[in-house]
Design a protein that fits this description.
The complex is a heterodimer of chains A (263) and B (357). Chain A is an all-alpha fold and 263 residues long. Chain A has eight helices and no strands. Helix content of chain B is 40%, strand content 35%. The chains are: A mainly alpha (263), B alpha+beta (357).
């Protein structure tokens, strides 16, 4: 993949984020619309790049940190578009796209070359595991962003952000969809582990923390029914949950060692 | 026997407690915190936890508890929390089933609950009555008994390692057969991500290597011959040469007898017997670094060593998880549940029927 195209993609998302920033200052809907078009353009370019990498490699090339950051960024941008088109959340895009820039910015200095596939990863179950995992992570990232904005809105009550009820609704939807997809990721991963290593649950630290992510968000899917935990507490839980996701995704690989095949 | 009102009230309270959402959150939180801390204990004590992947929890835990009870205690404690959480989930599921007509729209969510219960049962079942063994070293033609499964034998019929031109392993193609009471019950090509699964057994390749089996020689008038233990070579005028033994690294004891010195190729030697029409003509060791023994020279046999004969062997893992079908049923329940919950969520949002999740 050409680095030039990657920098172009980064520039498009940077312009979109800047547009959302200007929108928060000048409050002109035309600027937000241009930003949305830029996000669209970025998603199309990123989808094409991802598709090209997949086509040339012959398998879903999400096997190293560059590729996972790139895929995560793509999934987050796509999910932002979904929520934007569904709820017209506008200024909310600033925070989500900044998070997306961090992910893509983390990928840029790394080598984009597609690495050789470990034989054990050569199965459609791996592709399913990865797709569900990172799309699930992206929904959790969205919930994190919405959680932060909910706390901002509950303190500042600004016209820039959607009302608390809408933010809560989006947050719960992101958690619900993220949890469902992450559940499918664990199902696919367990079946794959069974055929690759002969046991469907492995006691490596990444698998353990994946179960913890699942349990945490399963808890969140229930916590919304407890009145005291609605609102601010739920927003804080969304932030804490994403902390667990980040530790599972990056912390284990960077700080600890794991015998998970993607480490 | 009829229950009085007080007993009924107590039972009702107990049931309500069993189904309580707060209890679920408390148990899940306790398990989460214990496992979080435990995973770090596990990471910083690899010597204690190294065997956890090679054995089932049922076999590993008692040994580990006797060696380092304080470091391992989080496992049974978190296991207990998860088990109680599963019981709580079961109560919720039964409670929902009793009100199915009114709450059928929640079928997706409760299928996920059912899947979680099945997975908990499957894990307990598999880890208490299953086993993990290996890797077992088998060369093509070898057959081994599976000690944990009396009557069962595993045979490696053929083995072909697949390598890239750079030498990087690509796959391990094992043609294996499973025998039960001397009757072949299943035969399959086992390779990476394609195990043999039969009666809860999962047989899969772990690795492979090469074993020195003998040496290749050039014999004038005959050509290249491979001499490995058990091979018999007919030479001219009714003579036959039999290979009794092969040592990749031969040494000598104080009496001058040839003894094995190692398993790596260093000083190879063959123990040979030369038979004629009337019986044994010569018997002895041929150390390849030394000149050909006189017994062979006198019989007109000339062997020129060319290269070692290497036979690939496969390392196979044999696991048994009697809970695997239950786990699969749990996975199916969860998958269907998630899909149904997604559908039901958007349906409810579209129709305005209880728009909150």
């Amino acid at each position: 993949m050409s680095k030039t195209l990657l920098y172009l993609l980064f520039a498009i998302y940077l312009m979109a984020s800047s547009g959302y920033l200007l929108h928060t200052v000048w409050r002109r809907s035309s600027i937000a619309s241009v930003s949305l078009i830029l996000v669209f353009a970025g998603v199309i370019l990123q989808t094409a790049l991802l598709g090209f990498r997949w086509w040339t490699a012959g398998y879903l090339p999400v096997t190293n940190l560059f590729a996972t950051l790139f895929f995560f960024s793509w999934a987050l941008a796509l999910i932002y578009l979904y929520f934007e088109l569904r709820y017209r959340i506008r200024a909310t895009g600033l925070f989500v796209m900044l998070l997306n820039l961090v992910l893509l910015g983390g990928a840029l200095p790394r080598d984009p070359a597609v690495s050789a596939l470990i034989p054990a990863l050569d199965t459609p179950l791996f592709s399913l595991h990865i797709i569900f995992s990172f799309v699930g992570y992206a929904f959790f990232a969205m919930a994190f962003s919405i959680g932060v904005l909910y706390l901002c809105q509950s303190r500042r009550n600004t016209q820039l952000l959607p009302d608390l009820q809408t933010l809560r609704k989006i947050n719960e939807e992101a958690i619900f969809l993220g949890f469902g997809l992450f559940t499918l990721c664990l199902v696919a991963g367990s079946i794959w582990a069974h055929v690759a290593w002969g046991h469907w649950f492995s006691w490596n630290i990444k698998s353990i923390w994946s179960v913890l992510v699942w349990m945490f968000y399963a808890g969140m899917c229930h916590a919304k029914f407890i009145r005291r935990w609605q609102g601010d507490v739920y927003a804080w839980l969304s932030i804490a949950g994403f902390g667990i996701v980040l530790f599972t995704y990056l912390g284990i690989g960077l700080l600890l060692e794991s015998n998970h095949p993607l480490e | 026997m009829l229950l009085n009102n007080s007993a009924k009230n107590n039972l009702f309270k107990l049931w309500a407690f069993g189904c309580s959402l707060k209890l679920a959150i408390a148990l899940a939180s306790a398990a989460t915190l214990l496992i979080m801390g435990g995973s770090l204990v596990m990471h910083y004590n690899p010597a204690i936890f190294a065997g956890l992947e090679q054995e089932t929890m049922g076999r590993w835990l008692p040994q580990a508890m006797s060696r380092a009870p304080l470091l391992v205690a989080w496992l049974p404690l978190s296991g207990l929390c998860v088990l109680l959480f599963a019981i709580n989930t079961l109560c919720c599921l039964l409670d929902w089933l009793s009100r199915f007509r009114a709450r059928w729209r929640k079928s997706g969510e409760y299928l996920i609950h059912a899947g979680f219960i099945l997975l908990t049962i499957a894990y307990l079942w598999g880890n208490i009555s299953g086993f993990r063994s290996g890797p077992h070293r088998l060369a093509p033609g070898d057959r081994m008994s599976i000690p944990e499964m009396p009557g069962y034998q595993l045979e490696l019929e053929e083995f072909t390692p697949q390598l890239e031109p750079s030498g990087r392993p690509l796959d391990m193609v094992n043609k294996v057969a499973l025998w039960k009471n001397d009757r072949r019950v299943v035969q399959k090509i086992v390779r990476i991500n394609h195990p043999l699964i039969y009666d809860g057994l999962v047989i899969l390749p772990a690795s492979f290597g090469q074993e020195l089996r003998g040496f290749r020689f050039h014999m004038p008038g005959i050509g290249f011959v491979d001499l490995t233990p058990g091979s018999r070579l007919s030479v001219s005028s009714g003579l036959s040469l039999v290979v009794d033994n092969f040592l990749p690294d031969a040494g000598q004891d104080r009496q001058g007898r040839v003894i094995p010195a190692g398993s790596r190729l260093n000083n190879p030697a063959l123990q040979l017997s030369l038979f004629g029409p009337t019986g044994t003509i010569w018997q002895g060791w041929y150390v390849l670094r030394r000149p050909l023994p006189e017994g062979l020279v006198n019989a007109g046999i000339y062997l020129k060593p060319v290269e070692p004969v290497l036979t690939p062997f496969s390392l196979l893992t044999i696991n048994r998880d009697p809970g695997d079908k239950t786990a699969l049923a749990g996975g199916v329940c969860i998958t269907v549940g998630v899909l149904f919950a997604f559908f039901s969520f958007y349906r409810k949002r579209a129709t305005g029927d209880r728009p909150e999740i």
